[in-house]
Amino acid sequence: MNKFSFTLCLFTCLLIICCEGPRDPNLNKSGEDEFKAHEVQREIDMDNQEFQDVIYVPIYSDIYVDKANQNSLLSATLSIRNTSYKDSLFISKIDYFNTEGQMVRSYVDNMIRLTPMGTLNYVIEKEDDSGGPGANFIVEISSKNKNVKPLIQAVMIGHTGNKGFAFSTDGYSIK
Predict the structure, then answer these.
(1) What is the residue-level pLDDT of the chain in tens, covering all 175 positions?
(2) Among 57, 69, 73, 78, which one is least packed by beta carbons within 10 Å?
(3) Is the dihedral of CA 153, 52, 99, 33 positive or negative?
(4) DSSP class per residue in 111-163
(5) Among 2.60.290.11, 3.30.450.40, 3.40.50.720, 2.40.10.170, what is the CATH number of 48-173?
(6) Distances (CA, A) of 132 to 70, 78, 102, 150
(7) Which helix (H) or strand (E) holds 57?
(8) 79 with 152: CB under 8 angstroms?
(9) Residue 170 to residue 155: CA distance in whole angstroms
(10) Is 13 helix (H, G, I), strand (E, B) or coil?
(11) Contact present, 78 and 122 (Cβ < 8 Å)
């Protein structure tokens, strides 16, 4: 193979790799939507659920940084963690609201089962500013065991200039 053919081959390979585009952070390794991958195929008897709660999770699509760069867009990750060693956690609602209190989107069509010690994450990308600075999630959860203590948080990440920052918020029961 001559030098020209090798260079052309290398250039073609790089072009193919670079044109793949960004990966959706909400798809699992199989390319399946993270929430859909955990959906329960049968009805759950809610009367058997000893623990039921509604959690409010504040997130921020953007925050004020300084006079020169007044707002900085943020990516936000909703993280739902089942801290139980033996009991599943069931998620019946994940709704996203904007600053004005209007629902932007609902993420759950069917009940989601989160296995013991499992975690479910969902990313609101930096370019999605539909929630505004006062965005929030409402998450409805349940379990057969009344002593479960799930951890529901949001992690926001952003940067301005050469400064990066990250912070988290905790979910609060509003039942």
Answers:
(1) 566 555 555 555 544 545 555 566 666 556 666 665 556 655 666 667 788 899 999 998 888 777 766 778 889 999 999 999 999 999 999 999 999 999 999 988 888 999 999 999 998 888 888 898 899 999 999 999 899 999 999 999 988 778 888 899 999 999 8
(2) 69
(3) positive
(4) -EEE-TT-EEEEEE-TT--SS-TT-EEEEEEEES-TT---EEEEEEEEEETTE
(5) 2.60.290.11
(6) 14, 15, 11, 27
(7) strand 51-58
(8) yes
(9) 9
(10) helix
(11) yes
Determine the residue type at 118.
G
Q: Which residue matches tokens 């994940």?
A: 94
CA atoms of 34 and 19, how far apart (whole Å): 24
- Going from N- to C-terminal start, the domains of the chain cover 48-173
Token couple for 43: 């009805």
Amino acid 104 reads: V
Q: Which two tokens stand for residue 59?
A: 């997130």
